[in-house]
Amino acid sequence: MNEKKEKYTAVVLAAGKGTRMGGSVAKQFLEIGGKPVVVYALEVFEHSPEIDQIILVTGADKIEYCQKEIIEKYGIKKTVSVCAGGRERYESVWKALQTLKSLESEQEQKNDYVLIHDGARPFLNQEMLERLCACVKEEKACVLGMPVKDTIKLTDENGKIRESPRRDLVWQAQTPQAFAAELLFPAFEKLMQHSTEGITDDAMVVEQEMGIASVMVKGGYENIKITTPEDLLIAESFLAEK
Ligand SMILES: Nc1ccn([C@@H]2O[C@H](COP(=O)(O)OP(=O)(O)OP(=O)(O)O)[C@@H](O)[C@H]2O)c(=O)n1
Ligand SMILES: C[C@](O)(CO)[C@H](O)COP(=O)(O)O
């Protein structure tokens, strides 16, 4: 007898303003290798056998653009919603989770796992995604990342070094970050009940609100986030190699 497949939703975040990049077009919509940055990750989720559906989060004024110029144009058929995000990244995640709750009522089916990905990370690939999906089934909270290559210094506010942590224990966190839905929903519900500062990823929310530590899963050094202008040069050089 076939076992019922567990349900995976990918949330792709594309509601940021790209302040550090500058320019008039938000970085997730800039073209690299002839396609907008956000399309690369959407295509990976579209072609993954694990992922059942995709929610794309963008600015309220970009919903129509995303529907026509991203989802329809590039054939991202697993997209079940293009919804408006919030001011901060975690608020965009919260909006996506609310959308997902409404969809669950309509679909009369709950999700087992939710993956949250920065639309500004175009070099996710199927191998990274497979490792993450396999891990989250076991561990319930998993973060893609890579060990750091430089020596890390922790300083005080004046830049004075306070600690040099063991490098073999220090990782750069990437996305996607994947969670059992039963952990992620209550974590964000709790988070939104108090004033919140300094939240820069989803694993922090699950740790802070639920007391659950996520497990690091090997991503790739190429899984960069396009953040500042030099990242576009790095991205072009990765694409030239393909
Ligand atoms: N309110 C926000 C802020 C960020 N993001 C998304 O989260 C990802 C990672 O965020 P970051 O690199 O910080 O993007 P921006 O917030 O756009 O950049 P900046 O901080 O330079 O303005 C990006 O794909 C971005 O579009 C989002 O959906 N909603
Ligand atoms: C989630 C993230 O991409 C993991 O590295 C990162 O923390 C986002 O941070 P940012 O301040 O939004 O760039």
Automatic annotation (TrEMBL):
EC number(s) stated in the UniProt entry for this protein: 2.7.7.60
This protein's record includes keyword Transferase: yes
Catalytic activity: 2-C-methyl-D-erythritol 4-phosphate + CTP + H(+) = 4-CDP-2-C-methyl-D-erythritol + diphosphate
Pathway: Isoprenoid biosynthesis; isopentenyl diphosphate biosynthesis via DXP pathway; isopentenyl diphosphate from 1-deoxy-D-xylulose 5-phosphate: step 2/6
Annotated site (Positions MEP for the nucleophilic attack): 167, 225
Gene Ontology MF annotations: 2-C-methyl-D-erythritol 4-phosphate cytidylyltransferase activity
Residue numbers marked as site, Transition state stabilizer: 20, 27
Keywords: Isoprene biosynthesis, Nucleotidyltransferase, Transferase
Highest rank taxon of the organism: Bacteria
Xref: Pfam families: IspD
NCBIfam families reported in the protein's UniProt record: ispD
Role of this protein: Catalyzes the formation of 4-diphosphocytidyl-2-C-methyl-D-erythritol from CTP and 2-C-methyl-D-erythritol 4-phosphate (MEP).
Assigned protein family: Belongs to the IspD/TarI cytidylyltransferase family. IspD subfamily.
Name assigned to this protein: 2-C-methyl-D-erythritol 4-phosphate cytidylyltransferase
Protein species of origin: Fusicatenibacter saccharivorans
Gene of this entry: ispD
